[in-house]
Specification:
CATH class: Alpha Beta
CATH architecture: 3-Layer(aba) Sandwich
Helix content: 25-40%
Number of domains: 1
Number of strands: 8
GO cellular component, one term: membrane
Distance between the termini: 20 Å
CATH topology: Rossmann fold
Structural class: alpha/beta
Shape: globular
Oligomer: single chain
Enzyme class: lyase
Order of helices and strands: EEEHEHEHEHHHHEHEHHH
Protein name: 2-succinyl-6-hydroxy-2, 4-cyclohexadiene-1-carboxylate synthase
GO molecular function, one term: 2-succinyl-6-hydroxy-2,4-cyclohexadiene-1-carboxylate synthase activity
Keywords: Lyase
């Protein structure tokens, strides 16, 4: 894995931002490029070695970055609350600007695949719907399309754990401003106004290949999320992993990796030659 770098972008809603990122297998210039979007408490470091392992297994190039508010990227200003449409802003404003800043333009679309987990999966869905001319397809792990009681209950429990245990210290290993990361995510998800947030209408317009994967024991969402994708994106491939929680890349890395490599290989045959 190469050293961390920083991209500086200008945004209408967040102002100037500095986003940390790392390239994986940068020498594979003609290979599919996987852009990894982390979960609601994730970052470049929080992914650990899984993106590298996936890229090595499939012969992919990779790009891992931390959204503003996370990792070593520009933190969320204390006292500022994410708006209900914060994921829409990430998908339609921040991510396109970031890709431009690191040299990934529409001319590379046929090689670009988004790989998003949880909130990152939701952002990937929104980007796929809004910018079909900028990617080859997307893989989403445990994405949220709407807010469920289970999600709110689990996030409320996480708040208690953060306030009463050493979770804050543990997360501090992955974020320069851990309170920025945690409360930005926790406050908006527990805001009553957020119960109306819904992506179902948006995902229906996705035209590029889509692989959606979720663990059957996901503590933050039910299979209703996968069923909604299957119902509204007819061409999507949906995989439900047994004995797997909210983080398939940690709970079931082998079947997850095999599913992703096979899926991208079907749509980008040169990936198989790279892996070989």
């Amino acid at each position: 894995m190469s050293d961390v770098q920083f991209a500086r972008i200008e945004t209408a809603s967040h102002g100037p931002l500095s986003l940390e990122y790392r390239w994986l297998n940068p020498e594979l210039a003609d290979a599919p490029l996987l852009v990894f979007l982390h979960e609601g408490l994730g970052s470049v470091a929080m992914w650990k070695d899984w993106p590298q392992q996936l890229c090595d297994a499939g012969g992919f190039r990779g790009l891992v970055y931390s959204r503003n508010g996370y990792g070593r990227s520009t933190p969320r200003p204390h006292g500022e609350k994410w708006p209900v449409d914060f994921m829409h802003r990430q998908a339609r404003e921040v991510l396109p600007a970031f890709l431009d800043a690191v040299g990934i333009g529409p001319e590379q679309a046929e090689r670009v695949w988004l790989v998003g987990h949880s909130d990152g999966g939701s952002i990937s869905l929104l980007f796929s719907a809004a910018f079909p001319d900028r990617l080859a397809g997307a893989v989403v792990l445990a994405p949220h399309l709407f807010v469920e009681d289970l999600s709110v209950q689990s996030i409320a429990k996480t708040k208690t754990v953060y306030e009463t245990t050493d979770l804050r210290t543990k997360l501090g290993r992955y974020h320069d401003d851990v309170d920025s990361a945690f409360w930005g995510w926790n406050d908006i998800w527990l805001d009553p106004a957020f119960r109306e947030w819904n992506l179902v209408g948006a995902v229906a317009s996705i035209s590029k290949p889509l692989l959606a994967i979720q663990g059957e024991d996901d503590e933050y969402g039910t299979m209703a999320q996968m069923d909604s994708i299957a119902a509204h994106v007819a061409h999507a491939t949906v995989v439900k992993l047994p004995a797997c929680g909210h983080s398939p890349h940690r709970d079931a890395p082998v079947p997850l990796g095999e599913a992703i490599v096979a899926f991208i290989g079907r749509h980008h045959p040169s990936a198989n030659r790279q892996a070989a």
